[in-house]
Amino acid sequence: MISEIIFNDTNYQPKKQLLAALFFGIVTIGALGIDSVYFAKHFFDGRVLTNCIVISYFGWLFFISNGYVRKLMFSMLFLSYIGELIFCNLLEMYAYRTQTIPLYVPFGHAIVYVSGYIFAQTAWVLQHEFPLKRYFGLGFAILFLAVGIFLNDLFSVVLGVLFFAILKKKRWQNLYYCIALCVIFIELVGTFFGCWTWVPKIFGIIPAANPPMGAVFIYAGGDVLLAKIVSKWTIKKSKKPILK
Which residues cross the membrane (predicted)? Predict the structure, then answer.
């Protein structure tokens, strides 16, 4: 269904989208490095600059994307901000280096999601769909078990089980694995620079690493809601009468 929507879109520009997505790693390291604790101590508070970089990159991705991806990005902005209020402010699972949620964070969530989405639609991933499902499944299973055993990250073990439960319902789509890889990358970079820190015990009970690899489940769970929002948006628009 998703592939049909993409390839039937006359504005679909896979080469331009892939080119923009390939900058994901560079932009992530650069932007979070500027917002890091080290940068703030030795130079200046780079939060404003990071906001500009992330929002500009978001704008570039949005501009060259097709209609369906734009809806994903736009919806993700609001969905991710609500998620931040719940997981950061309400449940206090992690905290940023400042008391307030940075402006760039919701845009960053959308970038992470859409970057994984674009990678999942590349010719190579589509051509190797079935072997990649096996390798990804095995790799993530080992990852969740490894952090649980060696880092006592029981939180990731629990969320890892839920992650696979969602994937089973979604027929083990590589889309979720690609998004998960982007999530892991940005979590490792962000916690390394001290932009945010996960608490050692979630809810004061469940041991967690900094960052917990199980955080990928939050994105997978959010995708279920995001897909429903965009689907209803698309259906509602298609039923809108044409004015003459």
Answer: 18-39, 48-66, 72-91, 103-126, 138-167, 174-199, 211-230
